[in-house]
Structure formats: structure tokens, C-alpha cells
Amino acid sequence: MNEKVLFVDDDESLLESVHRNFKKRYDLELAASGAQALKAMETSGPYAVVVADMAMPGMNGIEFLKKAQVLAPDTIRIMFTGHPGPVTLLESINSGQVFRFLSKPCDTEEISRVVDAGIRQYHLIAGERDLLEVTLTRSIEAMTGILEVLDPAVYLAAQTLAHRAALVARAMGVADDWSITLAALYSPLWLVSLTSEVRLQWARRKLEDPAGKAQLSAAIERAANLLQPIPKLEGVAQIVRYQGKNLDGTGIPEDSIRGEAIPLGARVLRALQDFNAIEQSVKSKYVALEELRMQRGRYDPVVLATLSVTMESFVK
Question: Do residues 96 and 159 both lie within one domain?
């Protein structure tokens, strides 16, 4: 099948047998411990399937698969074990989300059958995830398409924001950059409910009137609440909700959330929205970035550092 499969076992003879029997069938990698396997998953993944022994020194199979699930939730997890008791079975299924068990000793044909089933499950999960992401993205694009008719300038600004946010997020190593892109595309829709005066003040970043701030805050909250009940869009709703929040806790909404507790996507949008507005005004990316840097406490310094190295690839 030529899919990436990782076998983890402290038994050197078993790993040698696995390598001999499956090196031509899979894109195979071997690890002699849980720690070694986790490092491989971080540097050489993603793997379609990981097969781990239960009884390993230092980090047993259950502990390893718990960490593997966090590191690569789509990877299918299979456990090698001698004679699993009911407690081991329950703990493995509940905490490690084990797809199948392989009882030692196990012949080559049985291992192939179970690993192949794991690969098929991996493709099913990946396909469903990709379909969901495309469906959600197209849904948001359909909504923003209405905005293209009502306000072409705002629509174009949203497209620019989404493009740049995706570049920054990928440069930061964000796995689910699609959620930031969706939030960026969706972000201008709440502007429709604002008065023209408040919209102008917000665009110029000179909104000081308490009544205008309250109107803006209510509009953003309504937009976030529309997304909140939709499955898989809870994170996007939080990005929309906190896009007006400064790193030091000031801004919108007025709550105790600050620093890294603010969703990363919101921190990215917060910086980029102001960067785009300033760049449009002064016609210089470098001046815009420097203005952001001068306002200490408002923007995430990691986001600004990433912005400085990605802005050359921005397309207007």
C-alpha cells in the first residue's frame, strides 16, 4: 500500500521481523521506545498507522498512545499485547482510542490484515475531514459572496485578510490554518449592522465613542454567536469573538482574557487588520509594520515577527 506505518517495540528481534516482512508493503519506520516514536511522529509524520507494544520500559503502550493521539489525532493506533486483561483493554480504548489489538504471537497475515484496515480507516477520516473543511469554507464563501454585491470594497478587504492570515498562520506552523482563513472571510459580515459613522471610525482605527464601541462589540458578539452552534466552527467563532482584543487584555470584548489565552487566530487577525489598514493609508508595508511594533502590549510579538518575514509574499 506504500503508506507510512510506524512500529514501536523494545523487542529488537520483533522489529527485525517486521522490517523483513513489511518493508516492501509499507513505507515502514521502526522505533525501539515510546520516546523515540514520539520524536519520529514530530519530525517524520504524518503516519497513517502506528502499531505499539503494550509492555515497554519507561513509557508503556497506553502512555505512548495517549501522547500519540494528542500529537497526531488522525493517525490510527493499534496495540501489540500478550494477554490483555479487562482493565488494560478498557484503559486502552478509553484513553488511547485504540483501533485494534494484535495478540502476541501474531502471524504476518494477521498483522497485514489489521494494518491495512487501519490504513483504510485513516483515509476515511482524512477524506471526511477534507470534505468538511471544503464544505465549511464554501459555505462561508457563499455568505461573503452576498457582501461582494453589497460592498465590493469590504469584500475585497476580507479576501486580502484571508490570504495574508493563511500565509502567516502556515509560517507559524498552525495545523488548522483553515479556521483562521474562515474567520478572516467571515469577519466583515458583522460590519453590515454598524452605522456608517461607526464603520468609518473602525476602518480608520479611531473609534473612541463609548456608544460606538458598544455597537461594535454587540455586532461582533452577534457574528460569533451565529457560528457557535455550528459543529466544527466553535473555534472559528472564538477567533471572530476575540479579533478586537489586544494582547494586554484591552479592547473587545471587555473580559479577563489576555495574552496567550486569546485564540491564536484572533491574535493573527488583530495584527493583520491594523497592518492592512495602515498599509492602505501610508502605502508602505514597512511603515505599517513599524507602527504596529511601536504599540507595545497591543499585538502578539510572535505574530509580528512572523509577519515581518512573510509580508514580502503578500499579494495586493
Answer: no
